[in-house]
Amino acid sequence: MTSRANRQADSSAPSAAGVRTLVVGPYPSDRAAAKRSSGAPGGRSPEARLAEAEGLAAAIEVDVIAAELVALARITPATYLGSGKVRELAERIKSEDIELVIMDCALSPVQQRNLEKAFTAKVIDRTGLILEIFGRRARTREGALQVELAHLAYQKSRLVRSWTHLERQRGGFGFLGGPGETQIETDRRLIQERMVRIERELEGVKKTRGLHRKVRSDAPFPTVALVGYTNAGKSSLFNRLSGAQVAAKDLLFATLDPTLRGVRLPHGAKIMLSDTVGFISDLPTSLVTSFRATLEEVLVADVVLHVRDLAHEDAEAQSADVEAILTELGIDPSDHQRLMEVWNKVDLLDEDARASLENTARRRRGADRPVLVSALTGEGLEFLLQGLEDRLAAGHPTMRILLAPEDGAGLNWIYETLEVLDRSSEPDGSIRLAVRAPQDQVGRILRRFPDAVLEAKSARRSRRAAG
């Protein structure tokens, strides 16, 4: 029995590992792209897009036999590709015993079904592939629910009974599993009911996260969120800064579930650092919607660190993709006081490229200036932490408080809730403290410690903010 027959015998196999796969990149031809007044999304070359698609395929451990670029003059409604290219690929699929075809585009249900008929092989599009990866990477209950919700929304439109004959020829695999008989027998009403239940559960998760955030804000510790293109090095940077052991691999979407850790800044202040799912070009809208609860950590963050892989040939295009998603989430990429660029992987650059990058960074002024780091070697992290401290201090006035020797409760409250910058003791045992506090906590501090003094510089800044 062939390897294909062996896999077909077990249609419930949980993994796509070893499945013979062809990756197809059907991108607009130069002429078609010129007519649209834009090339590939974010200015990315077709070769780079195809390489990324191969990387996504590698993330589910399929055996990529070949990857083929297809220049499209136009999209064919029935099959996406032209009829001649469909016949050509069908012959190749048959001769090379291909079992799975990954189309790096968004296919309609009709296009997917027609290609499967023509290829007599399983076909998934970019959305399906990303869902497959997310299904494998979710480790928490929340992550699994979000993936399932996005998956159900995707499959709801693909309940097509005419696929049954294909499923008899070849079994499904992995998270998506294809439109197998279980899916076909499940009607839209049952799927919708399941989606409603998941949304209710996620609403509960959202409320719990909201309570946790309220506890943190009452503490309060400023929050800093890491965002960036997938595989930009966010998790490696997170581990370097926090001492955590979050999985950090040279693999697309190595991190899916958000992680929070406390980090100390140079002067001792504590922040909460959040690692989040990586972004990617053409991220399906259903995924952005499903993962909104997770991405709320980004929405409420005091500072957002946009981690960029400057050693990547498509660094600019990746940055544009991230900024587009941030805009969709309601975060202004031009708000440089809140959004801070971190140019990662400088250790991979040669001397000339490194010098050019440093000159580019120096030409930027103020909050717009990026920080060059290497999460792998730790280079530049002290400048990153100092930059974070400076940004957070801009919105946190400095106050002077004199505590009576017996006010142990007050001293404990200060250390629990404020950033203590300096402490000294007076001859009579009184404790003099310099603290930094969030703007919205100033009134609360003055009510508790009426003799507290707001430093002149901070007071002017506070009046400007109020006015």
What would you note in describing this structure?
The structure is a single chain. The protein is of the alpha/beta class. The chain has 3 domains: 3-139, Rossmann fold; 221-394, P-loop containing nucleotide triphosphate hydrolases (Rossmann fold, 3-Layer(aba) Sandwich), CATH 3.40.50.300; 398-466, Alpha-Beta Plaits, CATH 3.30.70. The protein has 19 helices and 14 strands. It has helices spanning 3-9, 30-35, 46-58, 83-95, 109-119, 126-137, 141-156, 164-169, 181-185, 188-218, 234-242, 285-290, 292-299, 315-329, 351-363, 381-394, 408-417, 442-448, 456-466, and strands at 20-28, 63-72, 100-103, 122-125, 223-228, 259-264, 270-275, 303-309, 339-344, 371-372, 398-403, 419-425, 431-436, 453-454. The strands form 3 sheets. A 6-stranded mixed sheet has the order 6-7-5-8-9-10, sandwiched between helices. Strands 2-1-3-4 form a 4-stranded parallel sheet, sandwiched between helices. Helix 6 (126-137) packs antiparallel against helix 7 and helix 7 packs antiparallel against helix 10 (188-218). The chain is elongated and about 90 Å long. Residues 1-14, 37-42, 161-173, 179-183 and 459-467 have low confidence and may be disordered.
Which helices and strands, and how do they pair?
Layout: H1 3-9, E1 20-28, H2 30-35, H3 46-58, E2 63-72, H4 83-95, E3 100-103, H5 109-119, E4 122-125, H6 126-137, H7 141-156, H8 164-169, H9 181-185, H10 188-218, E5 223-228, H11 234-242, E6 259-264, E7 270-275, H12 285-290, H13 292-299, E8 303-309, H14 315-329, E9 339-344, H15 351-363, E10 371-372, H16 381-394, E11 398-403, H17 408-417, E12 419-425, E13 431-436, H18 442-448, E14 453-454, H19 456-466
Parallel strand pairs: 1-2, 1-3, 3-4, 5-7, 5-8, 8-9, 9-10
Antiparallel strand pairs: 6-7, 11-13, 11-14, 12-13
Helix pairs in contact: 6-7, 7-10
